[in-house]
Amino acid sequence: MSENIRVAIDGPSGAGKSTLARSVAARLNFLYVDTGAIYRTIGYAVWRKGIDPRDRSAVVAVLPDLEICLTYGTDGLQHMELNGMDVTAEIRLPEVSRYASLVSAYPEVRAYLLEMQRQLARENSVVMDGRDIGTVVLPDAEVKVFLTASAEERARRRMLELEERGTPEPYAAILRAIQERDWNDTHRDAAPLRQAEDAVLLDTTALDFVQSEDALLHIIRERTGL
């Protein structure tokens, strides 16, 4: 086992990967890396520039102009910077989700960000979540987990989250968006979402947050001896 421990968590949108990964990383004193936020940052840049995210050549052309950095503030949370500006809040805008999904399908975009992600894992013990962490980014990770839940449950959780934020959306619309995102993520040519052969499947459909966190910690400790 390498000096640093790498925990790779993959799974569909809305499965709770980020929330669980962030909490577990804090419990283990590991660095939490939300790779979805990195792709959202590119999606946000494309959206802000008025570029059609389906225009692959236009998206690729803008990459050299983007300086993307991950920072960790006094709150211990990951912050995203785009060309020197903190865009941590902006990348969570609902309209950015579709852009992130589309631009993340381009091989050039994924290659552009690959080394950044691997460098973080070389320098730190990490809990890293995304769509292709265990299959592409960290194929030799000590722990691989495929975290999922039914589309209906993920839509229900998202609906409650949006209501708490004061930006409610209809359940049916949220469910359609999640199903569309699932299809896009699993059918893209570059690093499609799939469970790595050596990943542990963790389905949280019937679990609350505490139960999900306990199950994830159990898997990590069982695999690493922590």
TrEMBL record:
It catalyses: CMP + ATP = CDP + ADP; dCMP + ATP = dCDP + ADP. The keyword Transferase applies. It is an enzyme of class 2 (transferase). One of its GO terms (molecular function) is dCMP kinase activity. Pfam families: Cytidylate_kin. Its main location: cytoplasm. It is found in: Cytoplasm. HAMAP family: Cytidyl_kinase_type1. Belongs to the cytidylate kinase family. Type 1 subfamily. This is Cytidylate kinase. It comes from Dysosmobacter welbionis. The lineage of its organism: Bacteria, Bacillati, Bacillota, Clostridia, Eubacteriales.
